[in-house]
Amino acid sequence: MNDLLSxxxxxxxxxxxxxxxxxxxxxxxxIYIKGIxxxxxxxxxxxxxxxxxxxxxxxxxxxxxxxxNIQIQSLIDEKDRISEKLNEYETEGMHVTVTMxxxxxxxxxxxxxxxxxGTRIKTDKASNYKxxxxxxxxxxxxxxxxxxxxxxxxxxxxxxxxxxxxxxxxNKRFVNRIDxxxxxxxxxxxxxxxxxxxxDLMFNRSGS
Length: 208
Hints:
Layout: H1 2-11, H2 21-92, E1 94-101, E2 131-134, E3 151-155, E4 162-169, E5 177-181, E6 191-198
Parallel strand pairs: 1-5, 2-4
Antiparallel strand pairs: 1-6, 2-5, 3-4, 3-6
């Protein structure tokens, strides 16, 4: 001990007495208890955080699903509304502007004898076919209610009233409009108050 004190005096460093056996046990026990308490606290905080995050995610997910359900229901309602309108057009008719076109290149394309559905015609007998082109919004592929091959009853055009078959399609700039296929010697005409109603006639693929 004298040697220890002399070293301390010489170095200026004081050494604590070595802990006894009972002191070591107390130190270890305190460390263990503190560790358990710390672990429990951290575990509690972690668990609470998980619960809060789960709850928050649940709220967000519920709102997201509710929003999506509202959007889906809105689309379903819109689809039903459109279907009802299309059915109305089929059974009650639709007002259209009626014009005419001829099987010549500057009015069609480079193959005026071939219609949009692939039908081949004799251009000098165009008026005999009773074919029509319809604006794109009337065709089912663009959300309409008519298909190639469908027959429609045309009214409100005086001398041009009758049954026609859909075989061609008009330029995309036209809406709610039909073009009657005519021979090259027919003079141009236009009717603003035409009406078409779909009929139940059977489709005849033959163009003659």
